[in-house]
Amino acid sequence: MPIPTVDEANRFLTETYPAAASSGVRCESMNERSAVARWTYDATQLRPGGYISGPTIFTLADSALWFATFTVIGIEAMAVTSEMSLRFLRPAQGGDLIARATIQSISTRRLVGTIELWIDGTPDLLVAVAQGTYSRGNG
Amino acid sequence: MPIPTVDEANRFLTETYPAAASSGVRCESMNERSAVARWTYDATQLRPGGYISGPTIFTLADSALWFATFTVIGIEAMAVTSEMSLRFLRPAQGGDLIARATIQSISTRRLVGTIELWIDGTPDLLVAVAQGTYSRGNG
Amino acid sequence: MPIPTVDEANRFLTETYPAAASSGVRCESMNERSAVARWTYDATQLRPGGYISGPTIFTLADSALWFATFTVIGIEAMAVTSEMSLRFLRPAQGGDLIARATIQSISTRRLVGTIELWIDGTPDLLVAVAQGTYSRGNG
Amino acid sequence: MPIPTVDEANRFLTETYPAAASSGVRCESMNERSAVARWTYDATQLRPGGYISGPTIFTLADSALWFATFTVIGIEAMAVTSEMSLRFLRPAQGGDLIARATIQSISTRRLVGTIELWIDGTPDLLVAVAQGTYSRGNG
């Protein structure tokens, strides 16, 4: 299956997940079994102290893994988050948030991947890591 | 320590987590080691098909556990989500979302709790369950 | 479906999971949607300092949830652990280990439950909590 | 800090985690922030059907992450598993089990890493993936 383009992924995001798109989430790049997503810094969504919130981190992690599933099963396929575990490592502040998701396992019913998140410019200081499962079809 | 009132919890939410408050999250009740939170149905935040999104579910689960920590360590104490795992069980649609969090373990550095989420009126059909850790101080 | 007896559960454990049985794991009680399992204290399995090991904790948590699934789908049904997250809360030492599992969600493909573990005699001092998914059939 | 040798890691395993060592777990290699561990196939530990059990998978995943922490904080330092989430992806059978752990985040109190597990010879067919936290000191 050909990997969808970033434009196709973002168009699909806007159609099927408008709240994520309007909050500033975008697909940035896609490769075989992986994707990078970006949340563009928006001071109005921050918590006091300038911290990027847990839900923003969850949304971007989940979106990145979703984009990564597109590279394996295509963009129209129905895949939904089945479970996800997240570790919040350090305060996230001061810039765009980046998430890179990598698919580690593909079976007929599930895709499992790992996500790393950091503030743009400091990829060595992860603010969160996550691992989760997307279920194909209605499982 | 006296358990804070629901009004105090919601005032604190509005001050320190305005995005959650403005998205419709509220504390509904608090008891020793537990709390119930509600997300008031808002069609503009739904995904196509009328589904309540994963980030809304994460936000309410996280808020409910946060409210529950208030009943143990007080409302002003600094406690941050350290990790959380969520299982998405069935589509969430058609009403307010309710989350009940229960603290299962308290130590000097961590509080651990479990959260159950359902659509108001159907408490036997959980839409998600989660378990997570709040870290006291900067851990 | 009638709830299997504890003897039936232990016989099935010995047949299909002999390593767990021979390490000291037993089903202790079963009720609708829940089960209690016990690991009988055995000094030869401890880590230096007298600590019950992580794998022993995992084994008992997983067994307890497995017993609990018997009360919902029967004892012969094929159900396998699909995912589990565990939080280790305090050192486990000095007695039998007890695990109580409760099923929170049942669907055609999955059962999800929460497990609490403690040293016999101190149920208020949980040594670990876990949450996990059993998959029905080969999922 | 110099990376300990594999022999040092295995000596420490035998001393402080004899049950893991005697069940067939060994450190195989260590590099900066990562380690590979092996469970040598032993038919007496299998479940009926020849399946490697969940506890064996947990033990090897946990050991691999523990070895990986040695490369960051040294071999004598006290680090204990704080939490771990595991996804079981396909039946594990027919050979040695291999686990590769990579540390993704290091802070004063925690190390977080991801683990991939496969049967020796088929590294593209992961049997499980996990992600977990080691706590430094008594956290």
What is the topology?
4 copies of one chain form a homotetramer.
Chain A: H1 6-16, H2 18-22, E1 25-31, E2 34-39, H3 54-73, E3 79-88, E4 97-106, E5 110-119, E6 126-136
Overview of the structural elements:
The structure is a homotetramer of 139-residue chains. The first copy, chain A, has 139 residues and is α+β, with helices and mostly antiparallel strands. Chain A has three helices and six strands, in the order ααββαββββ. A six-stranded antiparallel beta sheet of chain A has the order 1-2-4-5-6-3. The radius of gyration of chain A is 14 Å and the shape is globular. The model of chain A has no long low-confidence stretch (mean pLDDT 94). Chains in contact: A-B, A-C, A-D, B-C, B-D, C-D. The interface between A and B is medium-sized, with 24 and 24 residues.
Brief overview:
The structure is a homotetramer of 139-residue chains. Chain A is α+β, with helices and mostly antiparallel strands and 139 residues long.
